Amino acid sequence: MPGISIVMENGSDQPMKPLFLIICYIAAVTLPLILSWLVGGPPRAFHQELASGLGILAFAMILMEFVLSGRFKNVSNDIGMDVTMRFHQMMARVALAFALLHPFLYRSTPVGGPRPWDPTRQLVITTDISDLSSGIAAYLLLPSLVLLAIGRTKLDYKYETWRLMHGIGALLIAALLLHHTVYAGRYGSQPVMTGVWLAMTAVSVGSLCYVYLLAPLRDKTRGWRVTSVKQVTPKQWELTVAPDGHSGLDYRAGQFVWLNVGHDSFSMKENPFSIASAPAAGPEVSFMIKEFGDFTRTVGQIKPDTVAYLDGPYGSLSVEGRSEPGIALIAGGVGLAPVLGILRQLRLTHDPRKVKLVYGNRSVDQIAYREELGQENVTLVLSDPPEDWQGETGFVDGALLDRVFSPQEFKEWVFVVCGPPIMMDLVEDHLLKRDTPSDRILSERFSYD
Ligand SMILES: Cc1cc2nc3c(=O)[nH]c(=O)nc-3n(C[C@H](O)[C@H](O)[C@H](O)COP(=O)(O)OP(=O)(O)OC[C@H]3O[C@@H](n4cnc5c(N)ncnc54)[C@H](O)[C@@H]3O)c2cc1C
């Protein structure tokens, strides 16, 4: 299970414990349902209540999806961004199923316009097209939004375009559902519930406004400047930025930020990157970036002094304040970035804990920062080694881990893992097999798909 952490962050961004978060989530999605039940109305057939209940739950879950967008430190910093995003994806599917099912359960209910003697719609469900049209529009839009998100990687459009469409689509659905719930809903039409739905929608839409309007406005006064761009391997770059007229970023080694280089702070052209530098090294922040797509392939062309904006720090990949006697750092490819930040911090602060690094790559020219990493307690692994290769060969798998770590180290150390999904799956499974407690496995995935 990735992204598991028991570390608490200090200060105003202190993340909440996972159990507390789950309770908050359940409370938020069930609140309208419970209130609707309390507000009540004359009894109806069970299938009608179920239909309304599913609709209410679906709308509440859809509103909560805004908060689960991954940009709220209090939500994602303790459970991990990857877990937050997977939960967001899973709940979207559940909400979709509830929403699609809900109108069909009104079966055998008499239909017709609102009757003056039946304000709570006990006897009929509305067929007034103006009330239903918003629901029908949302009914068509919602599956499109979810399907486009599921099939995003197979469709040939830019990530930024998809993100914009996803945000606008979600806003539209929230507005349509608010109208539908208030005008066509048996419970939503009651003043208390109208107030509840309005408040919940305002919070959700407000959270989006915070991410795309207020946070960029705040960041505008905290710009950064690119100080250097260096090639570290044929396809990996080191990009360093320095604060422009402010004190910099308060972060822990291993965390990540959303980086925007060369665009306005309001631009959607920003990408998540782990910080490869150590806070103890000073205010400059550096990144290790692998060429992958639109932005990353152009990193080599970025000129010094270009303006940049950093939104963060995010993430829970940190060994700060932990009590284990040793730290195992396991990286594959560009997954070295956060691991390097942690290693640098441990070395700069003369941390007394034992450290072992396992770093896997395909070929020798992909090994980044080889000299800086040194040789002591460093295991370099190549799957496609040259003939004179002295290090380990193959993949970073269970057999390799058994050669590097003792049974006691598996049980007592904290393991930090970052790399390609297949490597992470192998490592996490093996650690659990070797009785490493799950709260001692810290991991960050670079992809949510
Ligand atoms: C927490 C985290 C930390 C990361 N750290 C590093 C790192 O240290 N070094 C590194 O080289 N890569 C890192 N990545 C991966 C990096 O974000 C992507 O490779 C990069 O965004 C690709 O952008 P692109 O424009 O080059 O490619 P595109 O073709 O635009 O995108 C390729 C894929 O990258 C992902 N992606 C692109 N933009 C975003 C975005 N704004 N938000 C989320 N995902 C996006 C999507 O899955 C997309 O399909 C990290 C990813 C995450 C989630």
Estimate percent helicity. 40-55%
Physical arrangement of strands within the biggest beta sheet: 6-5-8-3-4-7
Which structural class matches the secondary elements?
A: alpha/beta
Treating each run of at least 4 consecutive H or I residues as one helix, how many helices?
12
Strand content: 15-25%
Low-confidence stretches: 1-14
Q: Please indicate the count of domains.
A: 3
Provide the succession of SSEs.
HHHHEEHHHEEEEEEEHEHEEHHEHE
The Rg value, from CA coordinates, equals 25 Å
State the major sheet. 6 strands, antiparallel
Oligomeric state of the chains present here: single chain
Global mean pLDDT: 88
Distance between the termini: 16 Å
Bound molecules: flavin-adenine dinucleotide
Tell how many strands the DSSP assignment holds: 14
Which of globular, elongated, flat, extended, rod-shaped describes the shape?
elongated
List the topology elements:
Blueprint: H1 18-39, H2 46-67, H3 73-79, H4 81-101, E1 111-112, E2 125-126, H5 129-150, H6 159-184, H7 191-220, E3 224-233, E4 236-243, E5 256-261, E6 271-274, E7 285-290, E8 307-314, E9 326-332, H8 336-348, E10 354-361, H9 370-373, E11 378-382, E12 392-393, H10 398-404, H11 407-412, E13 414-418, H12 421-433, E14 441-444
Parallel strand pairs: 1-2, 9-10, 9-13, 10-11, 11-12, 13-14
Antiparallel strand pairs: 3-4, 3-8, 4-7, 5-6, 5-8
Helix pairs in contact: 1-2, 1-7, 2-4, 2-6, 2-7, 3-4, 4-5, 5-6, 6-7
The chain binds flavin-adenine dinucleotide.
